[in-house]
Write a structure and sequence with these properties.
It is a single chain. This protein is mainly β. It has a single domain, classed as Roll (10 Kd Chaperonin, Protein Cpn10, Chain O), CATH 2.30.33. The chain has strands spanning about 10-15, 40-45, 50, 55, 65-70, 75-80, 80-85, 90-95. The strands form 2 sheets. Strands 6-7-1-2-5-8 form a 6-stranded antiparallel β-sheet, with no helix packed on it. Strands 3-4 form a two-stranded antiparallel sheet.
Length: about 100
């Protein structure tokens, strides 16, 4: 199994699958689905380097669901599964 460890203040996020039906029950074709902006944090870096040389731990942790901007991050495939690499400051919030 290939492992991926993000560096510094980066996160590896697995996108949550898009809904196939609308709230009204209408089936949405693949061509009309938007990429979700919600994902599950799979791995986190060791922290953000501050100006004084200290490292601040990230506020986001593995296993949390996060929201991020539609065009944020860099898309990669890890073992054939799509993921997004984000900086911590690209995360809009944590879903609780």
């Amino acid at each position: 199994m290939a492992k991926f460890r993000p560096l510094h203040d980066r996160l590896l996020v697995k996108r949550v699958e898009a809904e196939e039906k609308s709230k009204g029950g209408i089936i949405i074709p693949d061509s009309a689905k938007e990429k979700p902006i919600e994902g599950l944090v799979v791995a986190v870096g060791n922290g953000k380097a501050l100006d004084d040389g200290k490292v601040r731990a990230l506020a986001v942790k593995e296993g949390e669901k996060v929201l991020f901007g539609k065009y944020s991050g860099t898309e990669i495939k890890v073992e054939g599964v799509e993921h997004v690499i984000l900086r911590e400051d690209e995360v809009l919030g944590v879903l609780e």
